[in-house]
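We treat protein structure as text, and this decision shapes the records that our systems exchange. The tokens are whole numbers drawn from a learned vocabulary of local backbone shapes. One such record is reproduced below, unchanged from the form in which we store it:
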Amino acid sequence: MTAGSTGEYTPLEALNPNAEDHGDEAGEEQSHGKRTKVWQRVDATSFLAILLGFPVLLLAVTLLALFWHESVEAINRAEPNIYWARVVHAGWATRLVTVCTASIRAVMAFQAGLVTALVAGIALETTGAPLLHAPLYSMLRAVKAAPSNFWTATDFRPHLPRLLYVLVLIEVLVTAASQFLSTIFLSDFVDGTFTQRSNSTNVNILNATYGAADAWWSMPPAASWTFAELPGSFEDQPNFQDTGHTFRAFLPFEEEMQRTRLHRSVVQCRSWIIEYYVHLSGQIPTENLRYPLSIDQVSQPYINFTCILPVPAYWDNNTVGETSLCVPHTLSNWTVLNEDPLIQPAGFVEASNIFMVLDVLSTSAIIDTLGHTPAVQTIRTDGPWTIVSNGSAYIETLRISACLSNLAMQTLTVGMNSTTDNFEPTTAWDHVTQSYNTELSRLQLGVLSSENMSPVNKRGTLTLDPRSEWETFNPPADTLGIDPTTFFLVVIVSLPTLFISNLNFSYDPSVILSRRTTGFILGNSHPTHVDLFQDTLITTASPALAVQALLTRIYQMAYYKKLAQLNSPVAAVTAFSSTATIPAQWTGFVLGLMLIVIHSTIVVVVIGWFVRLTEISFIGSYWQTVAHVVSEETRPILEEAGRTDDRAVRVWAKREAVVESLRCRWILRRSFSGRVTLGPVNDGR
């Protein structure tokens, strides 16, 4: 280009006008005068790998750490974050890990290449490299290859300083392990169950008693519905048993999945109490009781009862499983209340009821009474039981226990929660025992053993909040009022022998709980109820728990049949469980984080050394790479290498005059002309 052209041309020689006149001194002055800043000695890719790489790593690790934390907390039943829930429900849990680890691997790959270039520059400007390796080191500053090239391209003899050798070796291992980073993180994933965020759900409430009375005793329950419970403290005294104030709330959901996966809720529920009194002698006294009862009104000192007994179609010595449950008439002559009832009956005297449990001990003694009316005598007491004879001899014929229950109900706003998914066990027929297997149902009801009853959270049920947190529920104006007699109709009015009491008979409403066909077929309960009652009575020896379990099932049958017919929705706050593949531990995350931290530390250390120890190496400069290799010392090798490969060059170099040069390290240095080229270290420099 001529002087008159529009462009501007500066000869390369002009950059060093005094090189020939002032020799080495001029070269040194030129070099120091043109020293560039560190950030100017790296190309754009390297600069971005430093400037943006660390923020990207920090962002990816932060996102994964937050996701891990929310996942572990959610599995431990904490309230999940809304953004975490959106990611999980959208199926992006594993995709989030894939995206983040892909970003991390990309950054680590760029930075590992930068580490390779920086280490090559440090080596060439400090300790140098063997002559045959020097061109490789020079080129690595431009191409920024993987750090493993220090080994693979040098016959696994990189000739690096010891500390650099260790750092580069660690970086090689970390870079290789980072290829499995996604797998490492995903190793923490399992199919975990967590509680969803609370939402408003419409539920129905009981608003009428129509249809409550039905043949509940003669039909099997459709399910073992889960429920919420605030258990009382079971008390077993010499003369009575008390389950305590046991409150149970039924869940207003028709679908089994909703009931079993409900973890938190504030709903309208019905609760009830069962307490028991013993010390019977044919009549139930209402005064001077060993167990305290609240006597609201007494018209006579005794409560009389007449209960139907089981009458098997055939007789043998097996008396296990022959029981009668009856209710003395309570329509006009007395009112007995529990201590601290859930609600006062407010004139509804049938809210509190006495259930008489009569268990047969001797069928032969009963046979002896057929055809005449003996005088029943009390022989002894046995815990909650009174043992009586048939009057003709001191033969233990029956054991009798009186159980007090408050059947009135109240609709309340309560909270309930569960730390695990609940379950609704099935009652299957056992062909070996020729009866229904009620073990799982009894576990759910907490009546496997009176000595060691399972906690609520081990039985697949929810836990009611403390009674102090309950609130009175006011139904919407457009719904019918809540009738407290619903459960009275379910239990008492539905007793199969109620019609007998309405005839000119003196029997009280009863149900027969017999495992054998009875002579009074219409009075026998369905075998599922019989087996639940009898199994509980046999395993716990507690009539209190047996009646409690039986009444719970009868209540549930009526409640859930009625629930399907209701259309009186009110709002309830619910949180159901869900299952998804999410992190459940921190092991894989910590291992992946360690790889990232080690890599970042090596990058920072190598950058620091490059800034402090180098002056003339440019990262990503191809022309400088070529220029540093070309010198008077390397010209013979370059001329030979143009016609053959590296192996032949090594053979030629060992055979020719450059053998001595192969024994020393070559380092970047300035010549008298100002050029920077590779030269041997031991030439007096």
Observations:
- Residues 206-567 form one domain.
- Residues 43 and 330 are 97 Å apart (CA to CA).
- The longest strand covers residues 569-583.
- The chain has 21 helices and 27 strands.
